[in-house]
Amino acid sequence: MASPSLIAAIVILVGFTAYAKLFWRPALHPKAPPLTHGVYPIVGATKFFTRRWDFFRNAARASSTGNFSFFVGPKLVVGLTAESSRQVFFDNRHFGFAEGYGGLAEGFSVLFGPSAEASKAAKKLEEQLAAAGNDAKKRQEAEDRMNFSKFFNSRMVRVLRTDAMQRNLPKLVGDVRARLGDLAAAIPNKGFTDEAVVDPFEDIFKIAFQLTIRSVGCGDIAEDTELMGRMMHWYHLVDSLTSPTAVMYPWIPTWGMIKRTMAGMKLFEIVKKIGDERLRTGKRGEDAMQIMMDQGDDMGNIVGFVVSGLLAGTINSGVNASWILVFLSLNPQWMNKVRAEVEAAISKSATTTDPNATMVEKLASLPLESWETEFPTIEVCLRECIRLTATGATFRRNISGQDIQVGDEIVPKDAYVAYHFNDTHQDPSIYPNPTKWDPGRYSEDRAEDKKKQYAYLGWGVGRHPCLGMRFAKLEQYLIVAFFVTVFDYIACDSKGNPITTPTPIDLNAFSARRPEPRVYLKYKLKEQI
Ligand code: HEM
């Protein structure tokens, strides 16, 4: 039995350690931007979690340079605003991307953190590093492979190359047609005057999920409705179980964090089972997983890539594809332009030789090049949706080992840096009437997005542009072009009553989010699918 004094000593030690861990903060460097209001002991800036955009906007207004410091738990964060700081944020090579998101974005560890398998792979590569001895080239190769974000980015570029996109296109078209076929089948009586109501943030979201898993993952999941349903279930859990504590003090095991980690593990399990089966049986797929397997990549890393790719790709794509359809229904002049654009692309580039081909079959026969060049109207509609939905902050960390100069101030070594997308996208001096959906902003005569350096951030700028942009645009074009061809529809509430004003986009949201209350679409068949 332990003596009472030993127990007391342990209690005091544990208490002191916890106290020190909770109350310790680095001293603020005198040249760092001033500490903003509303930063409390232990938790730091609570509004960073409760009303993020209001917090950034008010802190910037209260600071003479527009820059400010705050704490998230014990982590020092410098918030940057204004044009010159924005440029440093996106261009400075010492601001680490994975390191920034890893420390401040909830759930990033599930996204990009190593799975148990990836950790094993890292260990194996560590052995390879030791074996490489002084051979610089071999060491570099081994190191590159150990760095998951480097691996992730290089494989993202590889699996979304033109040859892979071309090979995938018929399957992507097939997926979109099949899901729209499900919607057509849901119309009671199925006549051309009969109607049904759909929640696009559910059903269109599902299409984006399916196209993403097909393009950065494996066909086995995209082609198995039951498996895809399970993946979506775990995906939504990972995405929804957010907890400020996990960001402030990741070493405290909260229930939400445990559930989230378990949901992440389920995702890993599903993908790994498919990969292991291929390894065991020699069965092949025609997909991203196979490309990586053929390159000899480690299965742990492949699984990490697929799950992370799915999480990185789906939310923005699913939310924006849904919003475009909603906004088009509320803006008939843009709907007409989009429909005219689709018809023009069909007349110009359909490759089917069947004289009886339907509009949908003709659309399905467009080659990749046409999809990528003949939809500039859908492109500006998407651009405008992204401007409105990209509401969160973006993060980096100063990994230079030194302070970094920003104007007359500094970002201290090891500090995090945050920039809020709304600082640009909701700036009325760049985008007049900024909450209005108005794709005409990007016309040559208005060119609002070119008014200043980095005035449009929707696809990322500087050192970290979106690596999935080409595929993301293609999937939006596919979804929108097929949907407006097959259906006539209006925006409505859950009961099918028409609406003229949708739920406003929450500017305080951390990222693109599905609106609550939801916006629905009442649709009827326009063309046979
Ligand atoms: C409408 C859809 C999408 C939007 C609006 C979007 C937007 C962005 C933005 C703004 C960034 C830069 C973030 C920052 O600077 O902090 C980014 C980065 C990235 N995106 Fe996307 N994205 C979309 C779809 C996708 C898809 C489908 C994928 C892949 C499947 C993808 C993969 C990536 C990756 C890997 C990065 C990080 C690049 C790096 O580390 O340098 N994105 N995206």
From TrEMBL:
- What are the names of the required cofactors? heme
Listed A to Z, the keywords are: Coiled coil, Heme, Iron, Metal-binding, Monooxygenase, Oxidoreductase
Q: Which residues form a coiled coil?
A: 115-142
Query: What residues bind heme, as annotated?
Result: 466
GO MF terms, alphabetically ordered: heme binding; iron ion binding; monooxygenase activity; oxidoreductase activity, acting on paired donors, with incorporation or reduction of molecular oxygen
Q: Which domain of life is it from?
A: Eukaryota
Q: By its UniProt entry, which Pfam families does this protein fall under? A: p450
- What family name appears in the similarity comment? Belongs to the cytochrome P450 family.
Q: What is this protein called?
A: Obtusifoliol 14-alpha demethylase
* UniProt organism field: Talaromyces atroroseus
Q: What does UniProt list as this organism's lineage? A: Eukaryota, Fungi, Dikarya, Ascomycota, Pezizomycotina
